Amino acid sequence: MPRRIARSRRAVAGLVLLAALFAVAFAGPLLSRWGWDDTDFTAFRQGPSARHWLGTTQSGRDVLALTLRGTRRSLVIGLSVAVLSTGLAGLVGTVAGFAGGRLDRILMWGTDLLLVVPSFLLVAVLAPLLGGGALVPLLAAVLWMVGARSVRAMTVSLREREYVLAARFLGAGPARVIVRHVLPQLASLLVVDASVNVSVAVVAESGLSYLGFGVRPPDVSLGTLVAAGQGAAPACPWPFAAAAAMLVLIVLAVNLLGDGLRDVLDPEAGPRRGDR
């Protein structure tokens, strides 16, 4: 498996970029003389310099320290949402597809019902009421439905395969059959779903924070930094540009890694020209 991953240029590029972003976001503040909540009263709205590498905001806060803090928050939120939403999608979709019958109809009816709910509006309404700690479960709760339908459709096809039927005839229980024979075939689908959910969660959190429904002050995320820096961008572009650039890099890294892992894990996918 590691050798197959190493041969995928997309997977390697995405993994290296994502690892670099994590290293910068989590280790960078340890090397900086400025904390994200520090204020330099001698440098208001100054450009990049040896003292402040990415300049300062209108309130004298270091843009680099703020951007690293926002990147850290957005990465943690995005990955947490992806794990929860993809796990829920895999659980619901696999159970519905393998069980069939009434349970399948009930689960899919509930999934379809949630799909018609305006997700962004629902999170925007509930997040202020439930507090900042509810942002991750709220985003996960509105991102699993499409993945669950895809997992269910693939599970319905897999349950009729010869090796699955043979395992069931030999007395293997449903849980064992799912873990040993169904989930490995769903790996590529779940990886792609997780990578998409990371990107969607990071962008959604940024959008919610931009509108004031996400991460609350005094804490920051990339969305709050973009919102705070937009108004002054013509005269003081560095806070806005730094946060926007990190947001683009996160989405790019996750999508590259997801595409590469999909090709590696999908047993029916041949090597792509760009991965050779």
UniProtKB/TrEMBL annotation:
<feature type="transmembrane region" description="Helical">
    <location>
        <begin position="106"/>
        <end position="127"/>
    </location>
</feature>
<keyword id="KW-0472">Membrane</keyword>
<keyword id="KW-0653">Protein transport</keyword>
<keyword id="KW-1133">Transmembrane helix</keyword>
<dbReference type="GO" id="GO:0055085">
    <property type="term" value="P:transmembrane transport"/>
</dbReference>
<protein>
    <recommendedName>
        <fullName>Oligopeptide transport system permease protein OppC</fullName>
    </recommendedName>
</protein>
<keyword id="KW-0813">Transport</keyword>
<dbReference type="GO" id="GO:0015031">
    <property type="term" value="P:protein transport"/>
</dbReference>
<dbReference type="GO" id="GO:0005886">
    <property type="term" value="C:plasma membrane"/>
</dbReference>
<keyword id="KW-1003">Cell membrane</keyword>
<feature type="transmembrane region" description="Helical">
    <location>
        <begin position="238"/>
        <end position="257"/>
    </location>
</feature>
<feature type="transmembrane region" description="Helical">
    <location>
        <begin position="75"/>
        <end position="99"/>
    </location>
</feature>
<keyword id="KW-0997">Cell inner membrane</keyword>
<keyword id="KW-0812">Transmembrane</keyword>
<dbReference type="InterPro" id="IPR035906">
    <property type="entry name" value="MetI-like_sf"/>
</dbReference>
<dbReference type="Pfam" id="PF00528">
    <property type="entry name" value="BPD_transp_1"/>
</dbReference>
<dbReference type="InterPro" id="IPR000515">
    <property type="entry name" value="MetI-like"/>
</dbReference>
<keyword id="KW-0571">Peptide transport</keyword>
<comment type="similarity">
    <text>Belongs to the binding-protein-dependent transport system permease family. OppBC subfamily.</text>
</comment>
<dbReference type="Pfam" id="PF12911">
    <property type="entry name" value="OppC_N"/>
</dbReference>
<dbReference type="InterPro" id="IPR025966">
    <property type="entry name" value="OppC_N"/>
</dbReference>
<dbReference type="InterPro" id="IPR050366">
    <property type="entry name" value="BP-dependent_transpt_permease"/>
</dbReference>
<feature type="transmembrane region" description="Helical">
    <location>
        <begin position="133"/>
        <end position="151"/>
    </location>
</feature>
<dbReference type="GO" id="GO:0015833">
    <property type="term" value="P:peptide transport"/>
</dbReference>
<feature type="domain" description="ABC transmembrane type-1">
    <location>
        <begin position="75"/>
        <end position="258"/>
    </location>
</feature>
